[in-house]
Amino acid sequence: MAVTVEDLRAMERLHVRAWPAFETVTIDGWLWRYSGGGSQRANSVSTVDFTGPDVSAALDEVEARYRAKGAPARVHTYDASAPKNVAALLVARGYGSSETTFTMTKPVGRAIRPPDVEIFDNATAAWRDVYHGAITENRRAVSSRILETVPPPRAFFACRRGGAVISTGLCVADGACAVIECMATREDARRNGGAQAVLRALEWWAGEQGVRTLGLQVVSTNAPAVALYRGLGFAAVATNRFWVHD
Fold first, then answer.
1. What values do phi and psi take at 181, rounded to 5?
2. Which listed residue, of 35, 55, 183, 193, carries a Cα 20 to 30 Å from 130's Cα?
């Protein structure tokens, strides 16, 4: 699947929309984000666009705003970040790389909704229990608030086995693209096909919305998840990094 720079930018813009921060400020085209808690994406600068004349001055403002919040400065870069040399500039300024993720995409194909996957307009209590059980405690409170603000069209997916939800997912669509968020499986129910069922239902829903391309981001060191997505037809198309300056 050929992916252009504009495709990457469109997908990254949708990832930014799909997980909205509580506070945002546009700094020369970059989007400064702050939400508190442990979410990296909701507490970092998105570098999809840059329109300013001076990157150093923009970073001065980024750092000052995070300093005022008592938070470390965090910048998110990917293969199509602007300006192109932003990662090198961050390293020269003393930033360290914290987490690396892959953006993976696949063309939406024909999919059948599995009968054991429920689809909701909002995150139910059972859905939240599974998803929050898979993330760190310092991300849960912020996550609960963000989930209320995820923009439509959106859908929450829950695979139910034996009367209990075992796997979750979230999909947010925008025209021909959709992104996947909040994939999680209860620890005592792993390797039972719950995540695969959610992903198949999610692809069915995306097709119903007219979506042509599905995307997601996965931690590069999470080998089981990367293998799962590859097995379902996803391919890595970009590398993302979070850079942190204390």
1. -135, 165
2. 35
Cβ atoms of 42 and 146 closer than 8 Å:
yes
- Whether residue 39 contacts residue 146, with contact meaning beta carbons closer than 8 Å, is answered with yes
Of 142, 195, 104, 158, give the one whose Cα is nearest residue 19.
142
- Taken as a whole, the chain contains a residue count of 246
Q: Where are the domains of the chain?
A: 5-104, 109-211
- Measured in Å, how far apart are the chain's first and last C-alpha atoms? 39
Q: What average pLDDT does the segment 24-30 reach? A: 98
DSSP bridge pairs for 25: 32
65 and 32 in contact (C-beta within 8 Å)? Answer: yes
Q: Tell me what the mean pLDDT of segment 107-125 comes to.
A: 96
- Of 158, 162, 245, the closest CA to residue 205 belongs to 158
29 in Cβ contact with 189 (< 8 Å) = no
CA dihedral angle for residue 237, residue 23, residue 36, residue 121, rounded to 10 degrees: -70
146-168: b (≥16 Cβ within 10 Å) or e: bbeebeebbbbbbbbeeeebbbb
Q: Does domain 109-211 have CATH number 3.40.630.30?
A: yes
Residue pLDDT, tens place only, 148-193 = 999 999 999 999 999 999 999 999 999 999 999 999 999 998 889 9
Q: How many CA atoms lie within 13 A of 241 on its CB side?
A: 14
